[in-house]
Design a protein that fits this description.
Layout lengths: L4 H16 L6 H18 L6 H4 L12 H13 L3 E6 L6 E6 L2 E6 L4 E5 L1
Antiparallel strand pairs: 1-2, 3-4
Length: 118
């Protein structure tokens, strides 16, 4: 097999997400990308079954936010602006106001986990 575990997961997840989101204004472009990802999978994982049929997964839950919140958070991430929000802990009654600097941190520590702060 000429493809790493990380590459396989990236291709499978990307293809599934793009396929499920390809009903909007970018449908044609997303379909083209989905087909290209499928071709990469087929070339790198030859076998009797198609890779997308041999491997399957599903999301346990997706929690979408309202469009205004999405726009504010996306803008803060892209512009590097501070982000202020009300945080409610699942174990506490009171909530707190927090201001953070949203950014993506690369590999950290020995575990090599990627962390996202916002």
């Amino acid at each position: 097999m000429g493809i790493s575990q990380e590459e396989l997961l990236a291709l499978l997840i990307s293809r599934k997400l793009i396929s499920e989101a390809s009903a909007g204004a970018l449908a044609d472009e997303l379909e083209h990308i989905s087909q290209r990802l499928g071709s990469l999978l087929a070339v790198n994982l030859p076998g009797r079954a198609k890779p997308e049929e041999a491997f399957s997964f599903r999301w346990k839950s997706i929690s979408l936010t309202d469009p205004l919140t999405f726009k504010i958070v996306t803008s803060a991430l892209l512009q590097g602006n501070l982000l202020t929000f009300r945080y409610s802990s699942p174990t506490a009654i009171d909530s707190t106001i927090r201001t953070v600097e949203p950014h993506h941190r690369g590999k950290r520590g020995e575990e090599g986990r990627s962390l996202l702060s916002c």
